[in-house]
Amino acid sequence: MDLFPPMPYAAWSDTLATIHRFAQVVGRVRLLRSPRRNHWWNVPLHLTGRGLTTRPMGLEPTFTVDLDLLDHRVDVSTVSGRRASFGLVGRSVADFHGELQHALAAVGVHGVDIAGARPFDLPDADRPFAEDTEHASYDPAAVTRYWQVLSQVNVVLEEFAGRFSGKTSPVHHFWHTFDIAVTRFSDRVVRPADGADPVTREAYSREVVSSGFWFGDASFPEPAFYSYTAPEPAGLAEAALPHGATWVPRGGSHLAVLPYDAARAAGDPKAAVLDFLEAAYQAGATRAGWDVEGLACHGGVTDPLLGA
Question: Taxonomically, which superkingdom (predicted)?
Fold first, then answer.
């Protein structure tokens, strides 16, 4: 298939709203059963050759929850071989929530209390998943296309990640915001803003430049690549960005944005995305005083002999 096929937000917004909540239900299991890691790296989902996975988690038993976005099924399996599965098509969020709890119990996973779980940072955050019969749209072709685009973006972000030798996150898919991202860190400790919540305090306890891609929402109804620096250094939004990219105000800061369709229209879409991510990183890191050249990893190589 073509690199970066069409993915207009309006064409699948109802399905997107449903699968976003499916992912949040699975994410709550991941949050409860994975060992905590710095900056919440234990919480996001990761890609497989067929969809998304929690990766192995828990003990007694160790298990995974996999979303197969080609056959449109959920597989819950343990390292001992026990397995339970159910389909995704035609299910409401309430149905999905109930079936996932049944599947966990069927393979011997107990004590995962998601009965009262609610959406995170979504308009219906006050309604438990168990009561959500509103979100039930599921277009299998659109979901498969979402996973295919996600997979292609994942590979591009992996290449971008390889250009940095400092502390960097995995390329991972955040279920709460439904974006895929990779984050570069400096070693500079950040004092949290007064009143910052625990999620924010842990995520931004160090200076970061974060880069990624999201599929759009009601406030920004188109898919796009993005980058931001936190805390934002002075003059960031004055930096030049490649053709098609802009700085978008976001609260008291700015987001560098390259619309997905602008990348698709470029003569070399992958190069356009990498140029955008590099420009946005350089803009933030240089203004924040990072050792940009010292942290560079040209061609993914740190071996001094091979590099020379």
Answer: Bacteria
210-239 mean pLDDT: 96
Largest CA distance in the chain: 61
pTM above 0.85, yes or no: yes
Q: Where residue 14 falls among pLDDT bands split at 50, 70, 90? A: very high
DSSP state of 239: S
Model confidence at 307, pLDDT cuts 50, 70, 90, reads low
Alpha-carbon gap, residue 286 to 290, rounded angstroms: 6
Place of tokens 């919440």: 40
CB burial string 142-171: b at 16+ within 10 A, e below: bbbbbbbbbbbbbebbeebbebbeeebbeb
Q: Which helix (H) or strand (E) holds 15?
A: helix 9-33
Cα angle 5, 45, 247 (rounded to 5 degrees) comes to: 55
Strand partners, 172: 181
> What residues contact residue 122 under an 8 Å CB cut-off, 6+ apart?
20, 21, 24
- Domains of the chain, by residue range, sit at 9-131, 140-300
Burial of 234 (0-12, 13-18, 19+ CB in 10 A): exposed
What is the structure's pLDDT at 190?
Answer: 94
Average pLDDT of the residues in 48-77: 97
Give the mean model confidence (pLDDT) for residues 34-49: 95
Closest Cα to residue 28, out of 83, 123, 84, 97?
A: 97
